[in-house]
Every structure is written in structure tokens, then in C-alpha cells.
Structure to design on (673 residues):
């Protein structure tokens, strides 16, 4: 994931000339990896092998991958309760993620965080957050830290449309704008704040809220990874140049429920609406079709990727299922540093 | 008071509590470039209490950062900066306003180290105030340190003297955990002897501010002085009171508290937070557990009255423990 500046420049030239390398195949692999990881998480839940719940990212893969592929390893992200996709896209390994979801010692947080709190310092992931909008200040603080330390890192704050109801977000955007901090606010608008359509909870134009603070603010198709990536590259480049924060509203959709147990959803959204998104706006499928149409990958290549990921997921989940729980004595460790 | 006696031998001078805070901040900022201050009117204004006046001249607006009136985000920014290599000092003007920082302090700062399995750290300090009797009414007079003391993962400091304030604040800044530092706003002009040389006071070590044999007053912050004044009043009654200043509610130096209560066999716990479910209850239970068989009287608690702090002086003055009230309670416990 770490690209040197030279590589990035070279890539942009290629992009401009319309020549594509294997990068989009890598994007495809990353998105499919998230999809299959989440499928397996759902199975772990249904099979009663996973303690608690999980909030699946299926349907939103293009946002995490499109944005994180514009980042370096030393850039920061803050994530949400629906955070598995961000972790994987930022470079986390599936085996340690599964281990965390199962509460095992080998997990990223030694089993102490679980699905909603995975953090991975090595890939710049400052952590998922189970408080909606709770990480807006943290991401902005990381950006202030970047500015004070004088590095050219950036911070990305992922949050859902539900977080648009939180005051912290606007307090943070205000300071990010005032101090031109290198933070990118990425709103994953998956249309539903839990069990309510966001239009029932959110007045006015979403991107106008950020624009009011002077942030470059765009509402984009979050199902087209190339669109997301292009917007993210612009925002990241701008932040690295010291020109300050920006805001992206990515229109997306969660194919599953609010969490794995949210099976009966008819009271807040229709089956036909879900089918429409799944059949026509499936980000993994959209990229596969584009790759095929542009002869960047044939069916055989895509099948091979599918098979490799299937093996990776299977190996990872087996590792996690067989991994030991933390020792009971660990309960009172790490309360204080 | 060995630390203090040692210090006296070196060059000491009398400075105010506010100056002690300033010196601690300035020294740590000189020592460590990752330390910075963020808060409302902390730079040119030097805070409404003028405690930080001059700091921005030495360290510039990059390290003494005036923020909007956005306590939640200031705290959140502190958390994020602390997680990524800085040591922020978040200034929350009035302790009453920590209510606005609660998610960031309670759900974020306090839990990040634990939730990450020990990988991430949040070395930040939240400086704020406590204390009534300033005629500031119900939203600018509370002592809410018990709120944060309740949360595992946070440390809480409640200094009572310039000497303690300086040494404890320096330790708080160097601590790798989130630390809430409560300063009694009525105490900023209080003077005391402070060494010119650098010193640190570890968090979690109580200080016996006055030795005595008949009764123990365990006190915090502003109430240490109330306890000391009460002890003086009791001299006339031939009651010898010991005053234990816990200095930090978390970590709590249980041993010093228990040893004192065992020695004197009576105890009153005095704190300016609300009495109900407060710091006094916690410490009283520590004494009950650790000194039960040595006690000659039930442990008594004296906190702020369980009412919103009223504006009218006639009303407000009733809400906080006074030396006279503490002395009266002590006399009852001592059977005099």
C-alpha cells in the first residue's frame, strides 16, 4: 500500500494517458477480500461461533478501498462500528481480524476490542469507534499532530450518515478548516441511520454542511471505486500540500442489516429497494464488469482471484477458531499504560 | 513532607498556585517539544484566570492554541493528537464544562489503551477547575472530579498547594495516560514555598499535611485548607487532628489513608464534590474496609450539599464544608 511519491506521480501520468496497469485488479482483490471476509463473519454469527454482533460492510467496499488506496501506510484513518472494510483496506491481515472478532489473544487488540474497536497502529488505523461520530475529534487531532510535527501525513475520518447528527463533527470541521489541517472527512452515506432513512433525520444538503465551513465538498457515487479513488486522490493531494481539509459524501448502501441480527427489515426499507442496489449497484460487480469490458481481466483471472481469496479467508478463520483466548489474568491489564 | 523539607534546603521562593501551574507548563514545554496547550482563550488572554499569561510569548500560537468554544472537539483533538505522538494539555475553563467533553474522556480517552490491547496510548492532560464560593452560581461552581474518578483508564489529580500543583502537573504531563487535573479556582492566588530546582511528585502518593493523634481528616484540593484550619480550631479543644491530603483520587493512596485512620481511630472525609455518590463515599469505604477494627467512631463524610450551587452568598456559603463545621463534627466524634 505504501507508494513512494515517484510511483504516485508515475501512476497519475498513466491515468492521464488512459493507460491502466494492474492497479485496478488490486482494487478488485481488496474489495472482494472485504466482501468474503464479511460473508464469513455473517456465517460465524449464524453458526453461533462469534460472541456478540457485527456490522457488515457488504455493499460499501468501494468507499474504503477507493479512499485507502489513496493513502500511504503511515497515513491515519479513524473508523466506525462498521469498520472491518476500513481495516482491511488499510492493510490489516484477515487472520488477526477474525481472531479479534472471536475475542482471541491473537487478535489485533488481544481480544479486548472486538468487532467495533479494531485498531492497528502498524497500518495507521487509529481504531474503529462504537460511538457514532465519536472519532471526528480524534482524526482532527491526528491532523493537528501531523501539522505540529511537520510531516506530510494525512488523516481520514470515516463516518456514516448517522454521524451527521453529531455536533462533534461540526466542531471538528470548524477547527480543521480554521487551521487548514490535513484531514479528509469521508461520509459513507449508506442511506440508513440504523433503522431510519437518513432523510428522516438529516435536513438540507449534506455536502453544503461542510461547504459552509469552506471545505471543498463533493457528493459522489460511492459504488464506483474509480470515482471514489479519484476524489480521494484529489483530497489527499490537497491535504498533503497543506491546503487543508475536505469532505466527501459517498452515496452507498449496506446490503445487509444494521447488524448481523437485523434480518427483518421490511418495516424500514423494501426488499425491492435492496434488490435494486444489489443487482445494479453492487460495487464489486461493477468493477468486475468494468475490468472485463476494458479487457483488463478475463473471467479466468477474476475466478483465480476469487479462489485465492476464498483460500485466504478459510485459512484465516481456521487460524482464529483454533487460536487461544487471552489468559483470564489479562482482564486487568492495559487499563493504564 | 520530606520532599518539601528537602526542597527547603535548596533555593525556594514563595509563588502563587497559579504561578506554580505556569511554571510546570513552561518547564515541560521547554523540555519536550511535543507538549502543547489548547483551549479557549489560552493564548493572548492567558485564560480568564490569567494563569497562562505570557506562555504564548515564549511558545507561540503553534503551541498555545486558542480554540473555538467547542469543548467536545478540543478534548477529541487532544485524544487524537495524544495517540499520534504529541502530549496535549487541554484547557477546559470551568470544571462544569467537562460535561461537554464526557464522550471523549469517558468513551475515548479512558478506553483506547485497553481496547487496543495496550497498543495505543493517550498521554494527554485535561486541566480544569473546581470550587464554589466565587458567586458564580450553579453552572460555574461545581466540583465534578468524582465523575472522572469513576472511570477506569483515567487518572485524576486534585492538588492543594503550589508545591503539589507544580510537581503533580509535571508528572501528569509526563504520564502516558489521560490525566484530569482539577485546580481550585479560589486557590490561584494562594502562596506557598516552591523550589526553584526541578522536582516531580508521583501520582498516587498522599501527603500528610499535618500530623495528629486523635482524628484523621482526609481531604482534597480546597478542602485540605478547610481541614487544616479546622485542625487549628481544635487545638483549643485539645484535639489533635491529622490531615491527609490524598493529592490524587486516582490512583488512590489507600495505604496512607488507612494507616492514619488506624492510628487516630476516627476519620472525617472532606471533599468539595457533591456528597452523594462522591469522593467522600469512596474514601469512607476504604477506611471502613481497612481500619474497621481500629475505629472508635463511624467514618463521617462532608461534601458539597446536594443542591445546585446557589448564587446568593447567604445560600452559597452553606453549601461547602467550613472549618467550623468540620471542627464541630470532629468534636462530636471525639466525644467532646
Amino acid at each position: 500500500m505504501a507508494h513512494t511519491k515517484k510511483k504516485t506521480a508515475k501512476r497519475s501520468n498513466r491515468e492521464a494517458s488512459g493507460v491502466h496497469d494492474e492497479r485496478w485488479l488490486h482494487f478488485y482483490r481488496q474489495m472482494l477480500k472485504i466482501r468474503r471476509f464479511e460473508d464469513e463473519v455473517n456465517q460465524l454469527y449464524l453458526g453461533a461461533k462469534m460472541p456478540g454482533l457485527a456490522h457488515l460492510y457488504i455493499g460499501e467496499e468501494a468507499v474504503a478501498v477507493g479512499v485507502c488506496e489513496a493513502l500511504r501506510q503511515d497515513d491515519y484513518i479513524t473508523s466506525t462500528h462498521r469498520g472491518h472494510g476500513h481495516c482491511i483496506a488499510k492493510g490489516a491481515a484477515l487472520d488477526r481480524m477474525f481472531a479479534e472478532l472471536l475475542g482471541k489473544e491473537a487478535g489485533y487488540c488481544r481480544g479486548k476490542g472486538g468487532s467495533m474497536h479494531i485498531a492497528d497502529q502498524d497500518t495507521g488505523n487509529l481504531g474503529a469507534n462504537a460511538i457514532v461520530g465519536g472519532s471526528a475529534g480524534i482524526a482532527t487531532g491526528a491532523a493537528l499532530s501531523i501539522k505540529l510535527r511537520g510531516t506530510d501525513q494525512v488523516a481520514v475520518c470515516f463516518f456514516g450518515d448517522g454521524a451527521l447528527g453529531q455536533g462533534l463533527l461540526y466542531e471538528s470541521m470548524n477547527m480543521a478548516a480554521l487551521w487548514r489541517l490535513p484531514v479528509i472527512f469521508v461520509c459513507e452515506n449508506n442511506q440508513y441511520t440504523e433503522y431510519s432513512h437518513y432523510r428522516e433525520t438529516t435536513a438540507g444538503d449534506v455536502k453544503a454542511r461542510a461547504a459552509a465551513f469552506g471545505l471543498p465538498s463533493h457528493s459522489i457515487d460511492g459504488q464506483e471505486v474509480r470515482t471514489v479513488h479519484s476524489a480521494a486522490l484529489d483530497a489527499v493531494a490537497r491535504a498533503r500540500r497543506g491546503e487543508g481539509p475536505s469532505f466527501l459524501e459517498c452515496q452507498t448502501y449496506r446490503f445487509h442489516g444494521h447488524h448481523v441480527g437485523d434480518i427483518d427489515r421490511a418495516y424500514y426499507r423494501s426488499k425491492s429497494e435492496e434488490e435494486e442496489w444489489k443487482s445494479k449497484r453492487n460495487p464489486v460487480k461493477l468493477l468486475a464488469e468494468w475490468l472485463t469490458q476494458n479487457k483488463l481481466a478475463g473471467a479466468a483471472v477474476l475466478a483465480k482471484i476469487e479462489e485465492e481469496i476464498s483460500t485466504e479467508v478459510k485459512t484465516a478463520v481456521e487460524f482464529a477458531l483454533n487460536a487461544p483466548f487471552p489468559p483470564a489474568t489479562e482482564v486487568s491489564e492495559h487499563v493504564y499504560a | 513532607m520530606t520532599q518539601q523539607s528537602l526542597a527547603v534546603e535548596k533555593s525556594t521562593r514563595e509563588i502563587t498556585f497559579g504561578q506554580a501551574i505556569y511554571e510546570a507548563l513552561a518547564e515541560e514545554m521547554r523540555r519536550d517539544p511535543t507538549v502543547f496547550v489548547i483551549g479557549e482563550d489560552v493564548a493572548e488572554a492567558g485564560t480568564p484566570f490569567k494563569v497562562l499569561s505570557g506562555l504564548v510569548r515564549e511558545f507561540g500560537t503553534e503551541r498555545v492554541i486558542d480554540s473555538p468554544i467547542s469543548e467536545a472537539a478540543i478534548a477529541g483533538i487532544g485524544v487524537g493528537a495524544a495517540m499520534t505522538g504529541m502530549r496535549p494539555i487541554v484547557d477546559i475553563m470551568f470544571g462544569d464544562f467537562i460535561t461537554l467533553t464526557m464522550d471523549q474522556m469517558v468513551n475515548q480517552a479512558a478506553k483506547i489503551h485497553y481496547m487496543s490491547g495496550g497498543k495505543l496510548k493517550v498521554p494527554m492532560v485535561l486541566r480544569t477547575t473546581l470550587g464554589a464560593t466565587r458567586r458564580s452560581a450553579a453552572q460555574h461552581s461545581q466540583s465534578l472530579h468524582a465523575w472522572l474518578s469513576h472511570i477506569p483508564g483515567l487518572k485524576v489529580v486534585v492538588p492543594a498547594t503550589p508545591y503539589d500543583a507544580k510537581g503533580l502537573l509535571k508528572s501528569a504531563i509526563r504520564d502516558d495516560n489521560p490525566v484530569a487535573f482539577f485546580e481550585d479556582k479560589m486557590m490561584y492566588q494562594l502562596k506557598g514555598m516552591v523550589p526553584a530546582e526541578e522536582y516531580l511528585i508521583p501520582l498516587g502518593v498522599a501527603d500528610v499535611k499535618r500530623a495528629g493523634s486523635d482524628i484523621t481528616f482526609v481531604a482534597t484540593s480546597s478542602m485540605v485548607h478547610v481541614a487544616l484550619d479546622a485542625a487549628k480550631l481544635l487545638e483549643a479543644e485539645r484535639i489533635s487532628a491529622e490531615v491527609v491530603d490524598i493529592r490524587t483520587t486516582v490512583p488512590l493512596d489507600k495505604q496512607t489513608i488507612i494507616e492514619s485512620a488506624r492510628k487516630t481511630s476516627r476519620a472525617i472525609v472532606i471533599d468539595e464534590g457533591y456528597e452523594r455518590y462522591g469522593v467522600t463515599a469512596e474514601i469512607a469505604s476504604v477506611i471502613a474496609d481497612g481500619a474497621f477494627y481500629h475505629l472508635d467512631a463511624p467514618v463521617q463524610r462532608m461534601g458539597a450539599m446536594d443542591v445546585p450551587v446557589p448564587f446568593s452568598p447567604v445560600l452559597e456559603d452553606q453549601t461547602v464544608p467550613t472549618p467550623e463545621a468540620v471542627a464541630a463534627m470532629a468534636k462530636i466524634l471525639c466525644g467532646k
Q: What stands out?
A: Chain B has a mean pLDDT of 96.
